[in-house]
């Protein structure tokens, strides 16, 4: 897998969350104006609901619509649960991406050291040259807060009684907070981290070609049994797969160059004649 494929996968997963948020946001356009106390519309003037919803749509510029059932809309907070659930999903995926960034940039000697994150501040007052992945760490913590807010929204939605839910203030506060901190986290992650990332090409190549796991790619060519032998020899001797395959006369230099080219390594399976 290339670094480009990794970043593309991240882009796709975040695109999914954008579409999910766009869908759940539409649920909030249904309003219960005119329901009065419990949804029966007691003491509301005739035509009030239609006029109020139209005025709200005009003020906000959003296509607000009256709820189908005002009693249900007054007591139920499902739209908030689903919408904040979408924020939680985004937070989970965003935090996972930040975990990946932290481990891929770890090092330079005792970690993976495949990516370089922008250096924003000194990492330690006692350890010279230490650099911390501060932006991914901050985003992780923001995401943890959003996960906590999601529990708050869920408990508050459940906390209603009969036709009323007096817990909606904490639902609103949690949703607004999650929206604000997640927005800021995404912007800062992009501006202060993602856009400044560079790749340690030599390190990435070394990890690939010194990995015993790459013998798996040779299974269709040399067979599983021979691949198992090659892997064990590599583990015992410290040699890489290429060296052992050449020593055993399984493939030539030219064949290995072709098989292990970047273009072929990116394919699901190398199309080659099986080893006889």
TrEMBL record:
It comes from the Bacteria. Residues 1-148 form the Fumarate lyase N-terminal domain. One of its GO terms (biological process) is tricarboxylic acid cycle. This is Aspartate ammonia-lyase. Coiled coil: none annotated. Keywords: Lyase. One of its GO terms (molecular function) is aspartate ammonia-lyase activity. One of its GO terms (cellular component) is cytosol. InterPro entries: Aspartate_Ammonia-Lyase, Fumarase_C_C, Fumarate_lyase_CS, Fumarate_lyase_fam, Fumarate_lyase_N, L-Aspartase-like. The keyword Nuclease does not apply. Residues 214-266 form the Fumarase C C-terminal domain. PROSITE patterns: FUMARATE_LYASES (PS00163).
